[in-house]
Amino acid sequence: MHVLFCCADTRPEPWLEGLRAALPGATVSEWRPGAPQADHAVVWSPPQRFLDEQPALQAMFNIGAGVDALLRLRLPPGVRVVRLNDAGMSVQMAEYVCHAVIRHFREFAAYGADAREGRWTLRKPRPRADFPVGVMGLGVLGERVARALHLFEFPVHGWSRSPRALDGVVCHAGTEGFDAFLGECRVLVNLLPLTPQTQDILNRRTLSRLREGAYLVNVARGAHLVDEDLLALLDGGHMAGATLDVFRTEPLPAEHPFWRHPNITVTPHISARTLRDESIAQIAGKIQALARGERVDGEVDPQRGY
Length: 306
Known about the structure:
- The chain has helices at residues 12-22, 48-53, 68-71, 89-105, 108-116, 140-151, 174-184, 204-208, 227-236, 276-291, and strands at 2-7, 27-30, 40-44, 59-62, 80-83, 133-136, 156-160, 169-173, 187-190, 214-218, 239-244, 264-266.
- With 306 residues, the chain is α/β, with parallel strands linked by helices.
- It has 2 domains: 2-87 and 274-291, Rossmann fold, CATH 3.40.50.720; 89-266, NAD(P)-binding Rossmann-like Domain (Rossmann fold, 3-Layer(aba) Sandwich), CATH 3.40.50.
- Helix 1 packs across helix 10 (276-291).
- The longest helix has 17 residues, at 89-105.
- The chain is elongated and about 65 Å long.
């Protein structure tokens, strides 16, 4: 068995060492142009040349949760695309989202500004019932986030393409349930996969359907959000603020207005980082399962995009 590693902006040596230890007897090597044909590949944002040179690949294992960049390429015919199920990312995502939601709900940014000015101020506590949180996308990450928010006793709504049922979460589904879902939310968390159907889904129309004083947390992809529409709704007063971890161009250009807007918090795509050891163990287990002729979790439907 031959496994190729082709991951942009990733130091290969630790991955190669880990995969060799987890797959004894397999040949594991970093891809170089002209490399021999492989059975499987571990990838992140590979170039088209890699895919063109490896027509015999049986499966590609994506080291992140999102596969949109991979699906934009011409894939070898018949290749399976497998994403990470979790590998330590869901708890990170739940931490990040809960922090962002609670920071806004408890007005910690305002308290921080007061402290820097030496002001001792108190604000009236706000009822949780007035801050229903909506989670768009109820996959592995979205479900973990929704459950975590429920533990803090926020009213939680969830929206997904197909019907779901989660304890403590009011679930909405499909196109027919989308506007009703938005109308219930004062805080909106986006965890959707990026597909042609979801690109630009966070726009003036959809964000305007949120409750007055709405807050956005985008931890999925920058292309979900129409930047100008968010800025207009913030400046017009319909929205109170946003925490943004993903952007159309990364790193976020220095001249982008998100950096300077007083009601936007920017983080550099760190909401849920890939954990190498957990990812290697999961990928190796799936490669071994495929070798035994078994099905594996996380296989992507290229037509749906997730």
